[in-house]
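hiii, so i know i said id send this last week but things got crazy w the move. better late than never?? heres the sequnce for the chain we talked about at the cafe, plus the structure i predicted for it. fair warning i was half asleep when i ran it
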Amino acid sequence: MLEALSCLAETGRPDALVGQLATQQEPLQDFELLRAPTPKMTVAEFGARVVSAFFLWPKELLETEFNRNALASTIQHDLFDVNPDGWKAYICCVTR
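okay and structure toks below
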């Protein structure tokens, strides 16, 4: 996700739609998960949501027990709160 966000940022188009860039820009086409967020999400919004969704990870990685459910819940809420189909697609992408 962070690699995809970095590639999106390199386009220099914060107001562009993530889904459109993912299909139009060759370097982004390998990131299937970029087609999962809501179709109207901009690069800037996606970036803010990714930061929010993954901010717990560094802390959790230092814990004795990794709380996968809490992390998944945060990602689902912050990136896919209005897009249950996107959440299902994301799960398929990350569990392959």
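btw The chain has a mean pLDDT of 87. thought thatd interest u
miss u guys!!
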